[in-house]
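Input record (one chain):
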Amino acid sequence: MGRASRKFVFPVLGLLCLVLFYSTRATGEGSANQSRIDHGRQLVLTHGCGDCHTPWKLGANGPEPDSSRLLSGHPQELVMPPAPPAQGPWLVNASATFTAWGGPWGVSFSKNLTSDKETGLGNWTEENFIQTMRTGREMGKGRMLLPPMPWPSYQHLTDEELKSMYAYLMSIPVIKNKIPDPVAPSAPEPAKK
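The corresponding structure, as predicted from the sequence alone:
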């Protein structure tokens, strides 16, 4: 190999080594992030998040989750009438979509868990999400989460599990879907004399 060839080969080899180093490093980071997202997906599926946060529809075999609205919460176009009053041992009512719930707390609507910045979790940080699950308060300091949200059981998940759930929620398709505000419980009827 001639002297001119060596001058060319060594810088090219050095550049190739740098490219391989950084691409391997980026791939490692990417696969670690994908692993976290995959773990988060498993946790979201096994902890029943979609049971209330994905609207249900009537399918060929009866009620089924509407996968086109994955984790988007109560459908904004579905305006609910007042919830029926609780009677006897039946203290809770649910909409056919399983996204609106009535009970002694009033009426609650399942939140949009997609990363839409206006109507979902898009402005939430990982820390906001973790604090919400730990405290039962929106963004860790806002209003209390309402039934049927099972945050008392979610508060026992590890930080790593909650970070994985958050990573998965930030990775799913964005759906713009504004959820109604909760409805306070009706005042009790005055007792008749």
